[in-house]
Amino acid sequence: MSRHYIRHPSEIPIQIVLAGQPHEHKMSNISLGGICVHTRHCLPDNTDIIIRIPLLMPQFSASGRVRWCHYHALEDALLGICFSDEETAFAVRMVEQVCHIESYRQRACRDTGRNYSSEEAAIEWIARYAHRFPSSSQ
To answer: What pTM value is reported for the model?
Structure first.
């Protein structure tokens, strides 16, 4: 099976909102088509959800749909979520920010020798550079 989009690894924390209740997860990877999330419990295919990434500026929120879920270890699964068509512009912006953050994390690890987590890098990158990141209206 071929991939339609390039996947970018990231472990930034996200929330999946299901029936109005947010659930904390960690992203596995992201592409323009959607995201892959570490989870403890699979959701049925075609379940409509809301994806939130509070660390991004502005906070990212988009509707999505469960495309697949596979257990790969005891109490650990990967959940594939696609974005709805109207969310594509937001997805592009989110992917750009995540790529900048991951690049920053790798550079900071190399330059300082410190092992930054994706979350630590996101917080630091946002504090230093998010104000320079073009808004979706620019």
So the answer is: 0.68
